[in-house]
Amino acid sequence: LAKTTQPISMDSYEGQEVNITCSHNNIATNDYITWYQQFPSQGPRFIIQGYKTKVTNEVASLFIPADRKSSTLSLPRVSLSDTAVYYCLVGAVTLGYGGSQGNLIFGKGTKLSVKP
Amino acid sequence: GAVVSQHPSRVICKSGTSVKIECRSLDFQATTMFWYRQFPKQSLMLMATSNEGSKATYEQGVEKDKFLINHASLTLSTLTVTSAHPEDSSFYICSAPPRGDYGYTFGSGTRLTVV
Q1: Which residues contact A69 (CB under 8 A, 6 or more apart)?
Q2: Do the Cβ atoms of A49 and B108 come within 8 Å?
Q3: How confident is the model over A71-98, as pLDDT tens digits?
Q4: Looking at beta carbons, which residues of chain B come within 8 Å of A106?
């Protein structure tokens, strides 16, 4: 499983765009990149997932360069409620109903603090 | 979307007793469930993978006789911490594999305090 490296912490202010970069130099061909958000005393929550180029959903964008050795989670116009730990995970995932191959190995994550 | 219900959310028990944590997939069937442990200010550590109809797979360093995992049905996986000690105090989280494009679904976690 590919190891990931993220900044330990980041600070931002309300309304700013936040970009969190994750390095995964030994990503494998069939690995996906997934980002999760975790609030204190809660289970992680899925944010976004991608394989290459750019993925966008209603809460974030994920930018993946051609070599896939890194990825950047972009949170537009953050608010105080976005203060959380963000995890970048890389692994082989077979998407489908009722089961999957592989599992998730969590790195240390990035603690994002949004200030007013 | 997929929902995983985990309970209890919080439990306090005495040293030497056992505690069972349940994880249910509410609107889908899961042949596999993953169990994690998270100590304060640390990341999630995978403990084991439960498989419906077969034995669980434990990560290196996790005592299978202490952390009993049972995947009784396609919607229920349980983790029992046996003969709990204060060092077992932690946040335990289960997760189900992905369905569609929405990644793994995690339970809300169980805060275990052993006194």
Answers
A1: A23, A24, A25, A27
A2: no
A3: 999 999 999 999 999 999 888 765 432 3
A4: 36, 43-46
